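Handout, tutorial session.
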Amino acid sequence: MAMTAAQLAMFKAAIDAETDGELVGYRVSGADNSIAEWYSANASPDYWILRDDVPSQEIANAINLQNMADITTADSGRAVQFFQIRAVNGGGFHGSNASDRTAWDDVFSSAAGDESQQAIAALWQRTATNVERVFASGAGGAGTSDGSSSANADITTFQGSVSSADVAASNYTHGV
């Protein structure tokens, strides 16, 4: 995914400000490939983000079929409608969209749907890469997520990895 001009500026600031010794060495030597690899690696400690795209197939596979049999007819119908709506519009669900999470949570909110509710909730989040952490929006304050655990998964405005071309395009400060 190509970065916008605003994202490149934010990425440049992150590269220039990073104090990790390994990354500083790469920055000083102008090792764009190594910088890209460092930013594309998983953040440490783990930082949790909400996934932008969760394929319908993953949701379908997470549903316990006995739960489908046990929930109300209305909720079962809603689940089918969710899949039909998304099939027309690209097929995926968005963990970063609160209405997607809430809709599925509501369908399986009864005790009869507990396994499915928990399995789908687990699909919404994953650990972030270093570059995704740069673009995470949470600060851990009241009403925001802080990425400290899957229960506090954050939203990020960039998902994916970066290339040496992205690093070069950021115009980070070489040699510092």
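The second record follows below. Compare its token runs with those of the first.
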Amino acid sequence: MVDASALAAFILQEPGWESLASYLKHCCSVDHVVKEVANAVWRAVRRGLISAEDGRRKVELMLRLINGNVVLFSELELLSRALEISLSRGVTVYDALYIALAEKMGPLLSLDSRQREAAKQLGVELVEV
């Protein structure tokens, strides 16, 4: 179970991105991960970290990865539980959606420390990278 922070780090080739590759071969995520990662790419372009053309290539790479390696689950099916998690643990609904899916599907791969702490408090197994 991979969240947007980990997938974006891989797509944007942030420090340590290589260590994430093996977890992305066959995994799952919430369907809005596509929007979150595309937004991270947009932000990198806006900040001048990558060119617009490189941003387009990275989004295409993400789409190929999603289509070939990542099973997506509907956020609508997870929203009620995610809201409960969000309200009780003080994380955004976006982050809570990943935790809700990880409760069902197994370990959570996230680079977000607040999200990881909330998941840990709920007994969700975390991938250590």
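Points raised in discussion: The chain has a mean pLDDT of 96.
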